[in-house]
Amino acid sequence: MNDIIKGLEVIQKDDELISLGTRIAFYPLAIKEAKGAILMDYDGNEIIDFLSAACVSNVGHSHPRVVNAIIEQTKKFIHYNPAYAVHEQMGNLAEELIRITPGDFPKRVAFSLSGGDANDNAIKVARSYTKRTKVISYFRAYHGTTYGALSLSAVSLPMRRDLGPFVPDVYHIPYPDCYRCNRKSPDSGCNMDCMEKLKELFNTVVPAEEVAAIFLEPFQGDSGVIEPPAEYIEELVKVCKDNGILLVVDEVQSGFGRTGKWFASEHYNLEPDIIVLGKSIASGMPLAALVARKEILEGWGAPAGSYSTAGNPICCAAALATIDIIEEEGLVKKAEELGNYTIKRFEEMKEKHPLIGDIRGKGLMIGVDLVKDRGTKERAKDETAKVSYRCWEKGLFITFFSGNVLRIAPPLTISKKELDKALDIIEEALCDVEAGRVPDEILESVKGW
Ligand SMILES: Cc1ncc(COP(=O)(O)O)c(C=O)c1O
Question: What residue ranges carry the coiled-coil annotation (predicted)?
Answer without folding.
Answer: none
